[in-house]
Amino acid sequence: TTHIQPASEALPRSAEEARRLWSHYESLTRDLSLSLTEQLRLILAPTLATKMRGDFRTGKRLNVKRIIPYIASQYKRDKIWMRRSIPSKRNYQIMLAVDDSKSMGESGSGQLAFETLALISKSLSILEAGEICIVGFGNEVRVAHDFGKPFSSEAGAQIFQHFGFQQTKTNVRMLVANSITLFREARRRMFNVGTELWQLELIISDGVCEDHDTIRRLVRQAQEERIMIVFVIVDTLLKGESIMKMSQAVFEPDTAGETKLKIKRYLDGFPFAYYLVVGDVGELPVVLAQALRQWFAEVVECG
Amino acid sequence: MATETLTATSTSDSPSQVRVLLSTRHPDISLPENPGPILVNTNLRRYALSTLVNTLLQSEKPIPFEFLINGTFLRTSLDEYLTANGISAESTLGVEYVRAIIPPLYLASF
Ligand SMILES: [Mg+2]
Fold this sequence. Notes:
The structure holds 2 protein chains of 2 kinds. Helix content of chain A is 40%, strand content 23%. Chain A is α/β, with parallel strands linked by helices. In chain A, the strands form 3 sheets. Chain A has a 7-stranded mixed beta sheet, sandwiched between helices. A 3-stranded antiparallel beta sheet of chain A has the order 2-4-3, with no helix packed on it. Chain A has a two-stranded antiparallel sheet with strand order 10-11. The two termini of chain A are 35 Å apart. Chain B has one domain (15-108): Phosphatidylinositol 3-kinase Catalytic Subunit, Chain A, domain 1 (Ubiquitin-like (UB roll), Roll). Chain B has 4 helices and 5 strands; from the N terminus they run αββαββαβα. Chain B has a 5-stranded mixed beta sheet, with helices on one face. The longest helix of chain B has 12 residues, at 46-57. Chains A and B meet through helix 4, helix 7, helix 8 and strand 10 of A and helix 1, strand 1, strand 2 and helix 2 of B. Strand 10 (247-253) of chain A pairs parallel with strand 2 (38-41) of chain B, so a sheet runs across the interface. Bound molecules: magnesium ion (MG). Magnesium ion (MG) is lined by residues 99, 101, 103, 170, 206, 208 of chain A. Magnesium ion is lined by residues 99, 101, 103, 170, 206, 208 of chain A.
């Protein structure tokens, strides 16, 4: 059975309230979103630019690698020219996965999540970098905005309807598993883009999750399918409850097989290779731009 | 690979970890520095929590502790407590500890 729920009638927020919230957070993050858009534009510019490539009989620039075979073949292998290739504009699929669990609401992170949601979805849509998908997760995974659907203020308000921060569990393992499925389907729809399609998931959560070993395995699987996952931890900073200070107590067998209590720093066992801790939404543009820069570096290296 | 993903989505519904914030009203057994929230398995009972506090206190001789959540003594596992009181594992659980007044059972049995 799949836990991905279609948009149902029983949404946690009314349309009017969601619309009011959206316009509030949209105007609250307007400056930040413009600044993030500019930073991302700079990073994306070289990857969107046309490239000289190929082996043609005529063209703009010589392909140096083809010169020696050309001479050696008595000028028969004459496909020595490169042409400008025009890359497809929609080469990116970015999924924003926002924690909709109760812990987000109780710690006041819900507000930060809304700011982040408005900020990132707005910037990415101005950028026209590609397709955006927004999901909420907790007990279940809900698609609030699907890949392929155009983004607008109305869509933004509809997205907010899906978030009530009342879900009683934070099932990150299910989120990662379902994201992989969603990305596979989205990739299949864009078959003609092939390997040029880059998929990125940004998870926004307070970072408290369990079953780290299974999650680590799924993250690796995602990586094998060239889905990059960046976990953005929205640090609550309430009552001194910073995730940086949080520890984890585990009873584990030691080398002698005796059960011993181990107290570890929670983040030391965190299953995501790429994660960021953000306490203030104002840090997000810089921090996310850094994350995306790393992502592109990785993709270029793999390709 | 598809089957692997599906296996991962089938999940049990009981919460298995919760954040606890330990505190005490007695200065002689208070923690040297506030450890902040600690993530523990919900199958823990009094004895395991006692071990946790003793470890944090670095006590040479373990002190038996009792635990109070919202004013009532913990007599079950944390999981059972959460279920019985309708508390989700999403909240940070305030856990107060006191020295156990009743001597351990094995001492009282002779
Ligand atoms: Mg949570």
